[in-house]
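Bug report

Summary: structure tokens for Importin N-terminal domain-containing protein differ between web form and batch submission.
Environment: batch mode, default settings.
Steps: 1) Submit the sequence below via batch. 2) Compare with the web form result.

Sequence submitted:
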Amino acid sequence: MIYTSELFEKVISAVLCSFNSKTTNDEKQNALKFLDDLKENQPILCSTISFELLKQTTNQSILYHFSLNLLESIIKHKWNILKLDERNLIKKELFFIIKSTYLNQIFMNPIHIRNCLAKCLVEMIKRDCFEKVNTTLDEMINMIQGITQIQDNNSNQLELILLVFRFLNEELTIYAQSIQAQRRRQILNQIQKRLNDILSCLIRISNDLLTVPEQHERLTQTCLLCVNSFLTWVEYNHFEQCESFLCELFLKFFQLNSVKLRHASFECLLSLVNKRLARRQLQQQQQQRNKRIASSASSALNCQQEKLFLNYFLGDNTLEMFYRLLISPTNSIEELRAIVTNDHINCLKMLGQFLVKLSNYLLQLFQQLATKSIDDNDFLTFVNERTYSFLQFLLLLNQHPFHLLSLNSYQALNLFIIRQTTLLSNEQFCLKLIFNLKQSLHRIHFPSSSSSLSPMTTTLIDNENEILKTQYMHNQQCFIYVLFEYDSEEQFFWKFFSQYRSELQKLIKSFIGLFFSETVAGKLYELDCCIRLEISLYLILNNST
């Protein structure tokens, strides 16, 4: 069978027929049988048809989707039976599409069309990874190196390359079991050889996009997610030299008005903290196994580097930015309803993870400081000041209306209570934490009617008691977050709030144990009232419904 215009039109008719709700089942079955037979027996002919469909400027999205799925199927299932010149032909045609104006037409379609094209290239990278020269990966790297300035005529090509890198990293990490071990090692070796080239391009492009984030929002988001896909698995030493630059860059992206870019940059920040934490844990394990390593110069704490890192993440400006953009974006209930979206919720969830990771990082740092002799008193003072500011920030988050973020802040505080008790030997801190716990134990009851205010609600609004007014406003904010994720009061209580209170119970037990610690008891000799409050709080938790 050879390619003809009649065959091309017949394929288009069969595709449209199979997705047309008005056609009969027999017609759909005949169309699907024709397409399956063609795909199974004529791979080269199918690739020709696929490329011709991609070159059509008036095609429907469904035809683009079919052509790319057809091409991906050929690469995945027929690549090994193709001759070398046939493989090279498919590769040549695919790169012709990428480098031509046809790509702009494809990228005007929904996102799944762009993703399909990127996945075709990923499958080709996986298939020709054993070639010594002119691999698909090398060509992609050469293309991104050739993009020295972001313009309208190359932005789609750049976005496609970034998608390919991101999907390839996901294949090597998240979906690693789907790749043969030998093939995975070969791809990793290829990436490692060109890793410095790739990372330098990604950092340069990210920095360039910072000047035009609104004009290229989707491209910027893709770039940040691509960078994060490398951060998740590449060794820390590849980023160590430019760590400060990356921290500053991601924080700048975080301050932009786009919630999508805020979420993407937050993922990068979280990955950086994970990398740092993983390296510190590895160092401590090595020191435990070999005492000579612990005393060597290579294990010495770089105070200046630690100070820069902590200042980026725990500096007053950063904490204020988190508070302004995520924690207290508005005081208006109506504005909050508009702000609470999936992207906003995801950012708050990531902030919660971020807090727990930072707590672990600080505690690892204190553990390391306890085993070393540090002469830099300014550094020790700085660490204590930043930790105290962070603890105050956690106290502030205890009362956040999004319960999961509130829970994460309590979990972070519990880590300090268990592992670094001397930091909490402060009367005002204890009193504030007790007050927060008491407030957080109140169960939120859903209003019986959303359309009318109950007499009790009206009384609360008109009441001059500021505490009651504050409680009412807080409950209204909680409702907005709760109703966004849960359909009923029962669902919220059984799926989350019961667990929430259980976690608070663990914290209270740890907190009560704090007063029996020898290192803390001497500093809390005037806190008899706090102990009584704790016991009453514990009883309230056990007896509450």
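Above is the batch result. After comparison, the two runs are identical; trailing whitespace caused the diff. The chain is about 75% helix and 0% strand. The chain has a mean pLDDT of 85.
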